[in-house]
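Question: what's this shape?

___
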Amino acid sequence: MNVLPDNGRASASTDRAPEIDGAYEGIVLRVDSGQYIVHADVEKNNHPSRVPCTLRGNLRKTLTYSTSGSQPRRVTKAKRSVTTDVVAVGDRVRISAIDPQSGVIEEVLPRDTRFARSSFRGREQTLVTNLDQLVIVFACAEPNPDLWRLDRWLVSAEFSGLAPLIIANKRDKVDDAMFTDRFGEFQRIGYRVIATSAKAGIGIDALRAELCGRISAFSGPSGVGKSSLLNALQPGLKLATGEIGEVTFKGKHTTTVRELIPLESGGWVADTPGLRQLDLLSMTREELLDCFVEFEPFLARPCRFRNCRHENEPDCILKAAAASGEIPARRYESFLALAGETRG
């Protein structure tokens, strides 16, 4: 469990950096257009400090140094990082003070976990780091949930070593039968599913209990109500929310930056922009298989062929389990669809 400084109610004095000298550490709360807000591991007037920071230029590159013992150590090659976010929300960083009001990020400390996606030209975009769980928010209706997309989020969480928590929001929009039809299979294979409604106040206390004492990130498609849920969890946040199109029922982006928010009930939560598509990180077919948790008991049994790809091979244990209903046929088909994006 990651332990952060006290997250009590903020006041006007939290926007001022402490008057300190030298280097100190903190956690990145907000990233916006190359500017960073860092929660410093020092206090002033009993309030945590929020320090506006810039990034030291050499952190954007991977440096190669000379190894000759007879020559002074020097940089021989500077290569741009393969990630699109050298510093992400949730990172622990080391800062040097420019003045009492601002600082420069000098070093990013090792990450325990990270939630990322494949981005432009195969580069990776790190969304949030050092999480305990990924809160995957989909709507029961308006927009209707795309369960194949939900599988993508679950695979990303499993691949990243994050505990997934599925939030079925807008529960007041559907009856019991439709809710079970859309989210029941995830409950049956063992995932935590909480039905909520920010508007009707359904499931808010249950969600608050799951967030308490943890570092979580809210993620999911646009328009499913992530910001509305956070506003319901902690009145006073006043995060921007948007309306859903009455014709297309497609969501609109209302969160434009990633930010780590302290909860008065305990814990921290990151609100991330809605994603129309979650591109998976590079993984092998075997790694993808491990991300479908219900497959595990069947993969322990041998198929007819040692190198079975679990597609059209005869006597495939996984294919037979899907045909018999021992594993959800839709989830098996989802695996086959995602397998085309793997390496080998």
Notes: The radius of gyration is 23 Å. The first strand starts at residue 23 and ends at 32. Helices lie at 147-159, 176-188, 204-211, 226-233, 285-290, 296-299, 317-324, 329-339. The longest helix spans residues 147-159.
